[in-house]
Amino acid sequence: MLLLFNSLITVFKDEWELVAIKLVIDFLIIPNNRKNTESIKIFSDSQSAIGILTLNWKSDNYGKTIHDIKIGILALKSEGIIVSIEWTPGHADIQGNELADQLAKKAAQEAEKIQSIPLFTKQDIQKGAKDSVMLKWQNRWDTSEKGRRYYAFQQNVKNTIPKDKPSTEIYRITTSLRTGYCNLNSYKSMICPALIDKCSCGQIETVDHYLLDCENYEEAREKLRSALYFITSKLTLESEVLLATTENDNYKHHIEDIQDLLGVFIKDTGRFTK
After folding, report:
1. Of residues 7 and 143, which shows the higher confidence score?
2. DSSP classification of residue 112
3. Is the confidence at residue 178, as pLDDT, over 50?
4. Which residue in 28, 134, 194, 246 is deepest, having the highest Cβ count within 10 Å?
């Protein structure tokens, strides 16, 4: 069993790293959580935590947490399971993670001024872990070369779109329109060059063509345009508005209404039922 741990972004980084390791040990002590496991390796980028646990470095704090971890490791060893804790390099040169490390160091300096270290609840630890993961996920989403078309509609990974609004089928179609990987001829011809990339109207059938231009769906589009006017005060249609997620500041209070109207348009065109 291989477990990877990066330091949590917390006010007391070393303690949170130790608490995270303790939670793992507590989890693995339960027999059902380690079936067919003979050895466990826990990787951490906290040299202090590793030194305290494996080299018996002196620590004036975290006594109970350290004691509980060592007792847990001995308990696993008594059942024939060897636990090793090893160091792994941190994620240097990544902008978001470098910022996280800077914040952690600054917070640690502030912590030295505090006379007593407050207790942390399990909820605090879970929130810290979640915030750390979200920051790293956001950094990867911001810097990735993949999914750039979808990124235009959703920059923030925290924002999610209900998968049943207005229906699961419409959600599936609108998501495919955001990514561009959809059942339109422009994309299908990229997958199979033998297929034509044109719409029945003679123009290349892209997402924008389907939503904004195709004369085959002008009646449905006019219905959509009229309904959207009362929300956007615009007579022109824009794919950025039609396919927007909840982070679109201009229309964030009307996202569900816009999605409902787009769903009606998709049904009226019948394009994805062919």
Report:
1. 143
2. T
3. yes
4. 28
Integer Cα distance of 265 and 217 in angstroms: 9
What is d(CA 231, CA 259) in angstroms, rounded to the nearest whole number? 12
Give me 171's structure tokens: 């959600």
Say whether the peptide bond before residue 166 is cis (omega within 30 degrees of 0): yes
Of 25-39, 79-93, 254-268, least confident by mean pLDDT is 79-93
- Cβ atoms of 49 and 42 within 8 Å: the answer is no
Look-up: residue for tokens 């990514």? 179
**What are the pLDDT digits (tens) for 134-159?**
888 888 888 888 878 888 777 787 77
Angstrom distance (rounded) from CA 81 to CA 92: 33
Nearest in space to 20 (alpha carbons), one of 44, 41, 40: 44
The whole-number pLDDT of residue 186 equals: 95
Provide the residue type at 126 as one letter: Q
Whole-angstrom Cα distance, residue 108 to residue 121? Answer: 19
Per-residue b/e over 139-165, b at no fewer than 16 CB within 10 Å?
bebeeeeeeeebeebbeeeeeebeeee
2 pairs with which residues across the strands? 41
pTM reported for the whole predicted model: 0.52
* DSSP-H helix ranges across 112-206: 122-143, 148-151, 168-179, 185-191
Q: Which residues, other chains included, contact 151 with Cβ-Cβ below 8 Å and sequence gap of 6+?
A: 141
